[in-house]
Amino acid sequence: MAMHPFTRVLLGLSCLLVAVWLIAPTLVVVPMSFNQNKSLAFPPQGFSWQWYSNFTTNPEWSTSFLNSLKVATIVAILATVLGTLAAFGLDRMRARTAGLLRMLLLTPMVVPGVVLAIGIYAVYLDAQLVGTMTGFVLAHTILALPFVLIAVQASLEVFDKRLETAAASLGAGRLATFRTVTLPLIAPGILSGLLFAFVTSFDEIIVSLFITSPYLKTLPVQIFTSITRDADPTVAAVGTILLCVTTILIGGGLLLLGRERRSGV
Amino acid sequence: MNGLREQRGAAIELSRVSKAYGSFKALDDISLQIQPGEFMTLLGPSGSGKTTTLNVVAGFTEVSSGTLQIGGSNVVGVPAHKRNIGVVFQHYALFPHMTVGRNVAYPLRLRGVGKAELETRVRRALDMVKMADFAYRYPSELSGGQQQRVALARSIVFDPPLLLMDEPLGALDKKLREWLQLEIKRIHRELGTTFVYVTHDQEEALVLSDRIAVFNRGRIEQIGTGHDLYDAPETLFVGRFIGDSTVLRGAARSDGSSTALDVAGETVTVPRRHRDTDRPVMLLRPEKLVMRKPGVDRSDNENRLSGTVSEAIYLGSGSKYEVLLRDGSTGIVRSSLTDQSFAIGDAVELCFRGADAKLLADDSTADTTLT
């Protein structure tokens, strides 16, 4: 299809405009994190690494960072195992039942975060899970599960089940078939689900604010309390670090999914 | 060679096997015995039960009733992966994440074969299908015919006593199909394994098989060599499914030793009696019919039917004609090069000896299931 050069330029420009509009607010934190003064003013003045060093040395920041890392890692593993099993179950179930169950499993994505947070908080008060590691892991797993389910389901859809029949004819039992044929072929989907689950937990704020306690804070909670208390540019430094890490992780996940789609045909 | 065959191939015996899905009977009381080392083809239109039969033998589908023995032991209830049967699928089913070599090695790895022996056997299997140079390629880099040859190597590398093939050439073009048919025939000869081959292509069945079982609507219509099925079909369905044929219908009259049919006013006679319960039809093979100009060469003990040439097809080695008969049906005649040639629209007479016509019971499903 031939396109007029002028149209092409116009399209490119509008794309650029939208992209800038979407990304600019996020990118503002990057220069702010190098501010010399203890202020969140924009544009920043001077240049210094002090807020990055504050992040690593101040125990309030480093502990919450480690907490987030710990929670996100456990959530990623738990949600991936559960989500993969659920995706398999739905794939081999009667279509009507599967459709209903799938909708149920995806509700955490649809229900407003605040509503979910209030519900979880109410339950946690009784169960004495507020401010505990278990509480964080369970709540975040609920939120991360749908992402794993969607990713694994996408790769199961392009997986040719007839290969399992072929493996059986060659002498492979159920478990051997799963290990040598099914798992390697849907691995990209599982891996991208794992990444999404990790990121979902790592930057979760709404539910975390409800179930946190002064003794157990995750990084987003720490950022929020810090910025409501004073104008500490450490927030900007943390923001910059998170921006880089999540971009790499999500980018990697999308790339894996994309490769899966292409090779699956 | 014969001793070797008996040792390598497994006998199969299906006895009164049925398979029902709800009220639909995919298999309706099938009995079939296959000899060790035999090449048996299951032939029939789609939905006739031939693939279901293969799946039952492979263990992908459980029978609803009946028994199945492979190599003398009962295998009903034995899962597919414990049956030690090679299966080649129409869709190749190669593992896309493994190279050709690893695909072929897969069944050997599962059986714990040592590295040195594994390599020798993979090489031998790939040599047999002439794909040894492709061991390090991935399936996606191969053509359909090459993929199917690799799939064949993978299914014979573990020396199964029985190899099942489900329309393995169905997705390939004609030239390749014909060449691979000969390859499969050669491999069968070299291995001595029992082959069970499913196809809807009657020519393919005739090329490959020792014997053919013709399926229709979940039942076996007839089992026999290609020669048996062509020359002595037991049902109208078999007669029509294998080769070309002319079918004559009409009001029947029987006396002591012969049967006469009134085909739109012309009477044809066969020197045999039909069973009283049947509505008889006559089936004639194209080479048993002779085409003449009307009124020429009359001899008394010959049957004649008049018609008009509606299609003339030049085949190189001769010609094939379709003749529109008076009752609206079509006769098919094949003539050699030396015979007189006819053009479309010519009025002709079809002549045949009564003894050459098969007298079969009419079956209204025989025509409709062909499409």
Automatic annotation (TrEMBL), chain A:
Keyword field:
Cell inner membrane, Cell membrane, Membrane, Transmembrane, Transmembrane helix, Transport
Instruction: Check the record and name the InterPro entries matching this protein.
Output: MetI-like, MetI-like_sf
What protein is this chain from? ABC transporter permease
Question: Where the protein is mainly located, per its record?
Answer: membrane
Give the protein family: Belongs to the binding-protein-dependent transport system permease family.
Transmembrane stretches, start-end: 65-88, 100-124, 130-152, 236-257
Annotated ABC transmembrane type-1 domain residues: 65-253
Per the record, its GO cellular-component terms are: plasma membrane
Q: Does the keyword Lipoprotein apply?
A: no
For biological process, the GO terms are: transmembrane transport
Judging by the UniProt lineage, the source's domain of life is Bacteria
Q: How does it sit in the membrane?
A: Multi-pass membrane protein
Cellular location of this protein?
Cell inner membrane; Cell membrane
TrEMBL record, chain B:
Q: Which enzyme type, at the first EC level?
A: translocase
Entry keyword Transport: yes
In terms of InterPro entries, this protein maps to:
AAA+_ATPase, ABC_SmlMolc_Importer, ABC_transporter-like_ATP-bd, ABC_transporter-like_CS, Mo/tungstate-bd_C_term_dom, P-loop_NTPase, PotA-like, PotA_ATP-bd
Q: What Enzyme Commission number(s) does the record list for this chain? A: 7.6.2.11
Q: Tell me which GO cellular component terms the UniProt record holds.
A: ATP-binding cassette (ABC) transporter complex
For this UniProt record, the keywords arranged alphabetically read as follows:
ATP-binding, Cell membrane, Membrane, Nucleotide-binding, Translocase, Transport
Q: Which SUPFAM superfamilies match?
A: MOP-like, P-loop containing nucleoside triphosphate hydrolases
Q: Which domain of life is it from?
A: Bacteria
Q: In Gene Ontology terms, what is one molecular function of this protein?
A: ATP binding
Limits of the ABC transporter domain: 12-242
- Reaction(s) catalyzed by this protein? ATP + H2O + polyamine-[polyamine-binding protein]Side 1 = ADP + phosphate + polyamineSide 2 + [polyamine-binding protein]Side 1
The UniProt family comment states: Belongs to the ABC transporter superfamily. Spermidine/putrescine importer (TC 3.A.1.11.1) family.
State the oligomer form and interacting partners: The complex is composed of two ATP-binding proteins (PotA), two transmembrane proteins (PotB and PotC) and a solute-binding protein (PotD).
The entry's function note states: Part of the ABC transporter complex PotABCD involved in spermidine/putrescine import. Responsible for energy coupling to the transport system.
Q: What is this protein called?
A: Spermidine/putrescine import ATP-binding protein PotA
Protein species of origin = Tianweitania sediminis
